[in-house]
Automatic annotation (TrEMBL):
Name assigned to this protein: Fatty acyl-CoA reductase
Organism: Aedes albopictus (Asian tiger mosquito)
Catalyzed chemical reaction(s): a long-chain fatty acyl-CoA + 2 NADPH + 2 H(+) = a long-chain primary fatty alcohol + 2 NADP(+) + CoA
Domain of life: Eukaryota
Major enzyme class: oxidoreductase
Length: 511
């Protein structure tokens, strides 16, 4: 997207954001970084970024590191002051009461903020129920309390997930009745004295959901719903978020969660067997489509306050299957190989859980033991078996989403897009049906190689040569393996034959 062209044009959406003050949570996360870049491009007056100290770094130190290291901030190297002047750090923590914000900062937010964008969440699927409740439910409640007091509020935007209602087959663009009262659950968390017993009880509470993340996001939506008659609210539910399509740069990401992890695992020869139904829809959405969709629905909600402005951001209109993804990306295995790979790409799939668990022994465990043995013999620390423990944990988390399918409705999202001008559709692209999947999947691999594996393009030829050598080694190992199997089978059959002969002799002797 041409930056000068974007800055020069005028439109209803861009005019809505120009000069506004935005209170943003989750700004140091994957989507948050993209929100910051897009808001600055839109000409907002200020971004009030909620951030906390982490790993010995102050919020300002964290921000400076992020801005200077991530290529998604396209103008930082040439104009760092543009970012620092626009971003004001609000020292706080989304999991704490009143977000642990100082009185002065709280006063400034209430008196100044026009837009509240709540993108922060605890996205770890295996997190304890207590911590998920504190961050995802209570944190949302605390932010809404502040938004309700804001004196110049245009809209409150909540970034949820399409899987918040994954206990249903068909998911409409509406608020659903909550299975539990979110405020009673918050009270239960705050008053519990035996955390172990609480977590045991929690497993019973969330049994209709695959993890604490999806469960707490569903209750966070209920918290948001209770404010719809008090403030203008917008909710966007993206499905599996992956690398960017084009805005501001193609193929960018900063993590290997979800789909990205599967691609990296397969491309590096680490993930060799995966439990997945290749006939099911792969509900992956590019991150920039989520960003632009969020800004579109927020803009629409600000002027349509009487509607339930909740939209699903999924591939319902432009589906592809996991099998299509697999076949398309395997085409690139020897064209864009990863230099830091463990082995060649050998991505096998099965719909049967027990078969996948059995094959892990041969595809993962035994090779890992052999690799670690080789490392030990070379006086290096063994690490591959430890790596596979993480791979298996990651696979277990994804199994629910790769072996189930949902009917996501998106009529409301279409309605929002229909109100956008032609210019806004160009500069805030969020029409999923316009994605060229083959091109996107190629960009996805290239982006993961560049931004996750940190591999430069000048080593591509070296990576190809290494990949070809490993292919020859792989074939040689297969030949040896099949020869050994054939040898064992032959000898077993020969042994059985000898046994039959012996039995014949014995029978003759008895006669």
């Amino acid at each position: 997207m041409d930056l000068k062209e974007f800055e020069a044009y005028r439109s209803p959406m861009k005019d809505f954001y120009r000069g506004k003050i935005v209170f943003l949570t989750g700004g140091t996360g994957f989507l948050g970084k993209l929100y910051i870049e897009k808001f600055i491009r839109c000409g907002v007056s200020e971004i009030l970024l909620l951030s906390r100290a982490k790993k010995g770094k102050t919020p300002m130190e964290r921000l400076t590191t992020i801005l200077s290291s991530e290529p998604v901030f396209t103008r930082y190297q040439e104009d760092p002051e543009l970012y620092h002047q626009k971003i004001k750090i609000i020292d706080g923590d989304v999991s704490k009461h009143q977000l642990a914000i100082s009185n002065d900062d709280m006063s400034y937010i209430i008196n100044s903020a026009n837009i509240f964008l709540h993108a922060a969440a605890d996205v770890r699927f295996d997190e304890s129920l207590k911590e998920s409740v504190e961050t995802n439910i209570r944190g949302t409640s605390e932010i809404l309390k502040i938004a309700e007091q804001a004196k110049a509020l245009d809209v409150f935007i909540y970034v949820s997930t399409a899987f918040s209602q994954c206990n249903r087959d068909c998911i409409e663009e509406t608020f659903y009745p909550a299975k539990f009262d979110p405020y009673k659950l918050i009270e239960l968390v705050e008053n519990q004295t035996d955390e172990v017993s609480f977590e045991v009880m929690g497993k019973k509470i969330i049994e209709q959901w695959p993890n604490t993340y999806a469960f707490t996001k569903s209750l966070a939506e209920e918290v948001v719903r209770r404010y719809t008659d008090k403030i203008p609210v917008a909710v966007i539910r993206p499905s599996i978020v992956t690398t960017t399509n084009s805005d501001p740069i193609p193929g960018w990401t900063d993590n290997i969660y979800g789909f990205n992890g599967v691609v990296v695992g397969a491309a590096t020869g680490t993930l060799r067997i995966f439990h997945i139904n290749n006939d099911y829809r792969a509900d992956i959405v590019p991150a920039d489509m989520v960003i632009n969709g969020t800004l579109a629905v927020a803009w629409y909600a600000a002027s349509h306050r009487g509607e339930d402005n909740i939209v699903n951001c999924t591939v319902a209109d432009h589906p592809l299957t996991w099998g299509m993804v697999r076949d398309e990306q395997l085409k690139w295995q020897n064209k864009i190989p990863f230099l830091g790979g463990l082995w060649i790409t050998t991505y096998n799939t099965t719909t049967n859980y027990y078969i996948s668990e059995f094959l892990k022994i041969f595809y993962h465990i035994i090779p890992a033991i052999l690799f670690d043995l080789a490392l030990r013999l070379n006086s290096q620390k063994p690490r591959v078996l430890k790596l596979y423990r993480k791979v298996h944990k990651f696979s277990d988390v994804l199994r629910f989403f790769t072996n189930n399918e949902w009917n996501f409705r998106n009529e409301k999202f279409h309605k929002v897009i229909s109100h956008m001008t032609e210019e806004d559709r160009k500069f805030f692209p969020c029409e999923i049906d316009k994605i060229e999947w083959k091109e996107f999947l190629a960009q996805n691999i290239m982006g993961l190689r560049m931004y996750i594996m940190k591999e430069k393009w000048d080593n591509l030829e070296q990576a190809k040569k290494q990949y070809n050598r490993r292919c020859m080694a792989h074939r040689a190992i297969l030949v040896i393996w099949y020869f050994l199997v054939a040898y064992v089978v032959y000898n077993l059959l020969d042994f059985v034959g000898l046994m039959d002969v012996a039995k014949g002799w014995y029978a003759d002797y008895r006669k």
